[in-house]
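User: Let's play a game. I give you a shape written as tokens, and you guess the letters that built it. Ready? Here's round one.
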């Protein structure tokens, strides 16, 4: 009786441990600016009367998943400017007539005095990202190239398959231990 109780406690403890390890990884998946790794694309980049810093996320950017965070400074005073119109234009460099225009806002930004936007890039390839700034000091523009990757199909398979595989392993261990317990019980009953 003692061995069976220890076995059940061990299986229950294993299940609790398994759930405790899997649950945080599922909760950690997030979307939005700054998630999935960030990369500074431009830092202290002159754009007319402005100086611009651009951060992209995730790293690497994937189809329909490119966030830009933009900080704009006055080039002379180095003050952060928040009363601007910041327009982002993304165009494919691979000969296709595909252009995306988005206005960056403070609402999307994780830092209140920055601008941010989510670009739904429709396909993989190299894209030219241009950022135009309009404000009381005039206009400015910066640009850079960004390689957009195809979405990985391995991530969802692992996210879905790992919990089931872990559960299957735990069930196998439980059944194996239960069978071993029954074998020992039968052996002890057969011995006079």
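Assistant: Ready! My guess for every position:
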């Amino acid at each position: 009786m003692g061995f069976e109780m220890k076995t059940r406690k061990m299986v229950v403890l294993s299940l609790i441990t398994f759930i405790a390890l899997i649950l945080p990884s599922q909760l950690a998946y997030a979307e939005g600016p700054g998630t999935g790794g960030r990369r500074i694309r431009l830092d202290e980049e002159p754009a007319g009367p402005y100086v611009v810093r651009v951060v992209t996320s995730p790293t690497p950017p994937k189809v329909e998943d490119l966030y830009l965070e933009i900080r704009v400074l006055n080039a002379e005073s180095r003050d952060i400017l928040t009363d601007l119109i910041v327009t982002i234009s993304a165009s494919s460099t691979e000969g296709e007539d595909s252009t995306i225009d988005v206005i960056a806002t403070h609402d999307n930004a994780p830092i209140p005095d920055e601008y941010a936007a989510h670009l739904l890039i429709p396909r993989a390839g190299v894209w030219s990202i241009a950022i135009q700034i309009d404000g009381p000091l005039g206009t400015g523009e910066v640009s850079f190239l960004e390689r957009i990757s195809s979405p990985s199909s391995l991530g969802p398979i692992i996210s879905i398959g790992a919990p089931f595989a872990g559960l299957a392993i735990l069930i196998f261990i439980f059944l194996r231990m239960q069978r071993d317990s029954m074998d020992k019980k039968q052996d002890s009953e057969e011995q006079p």
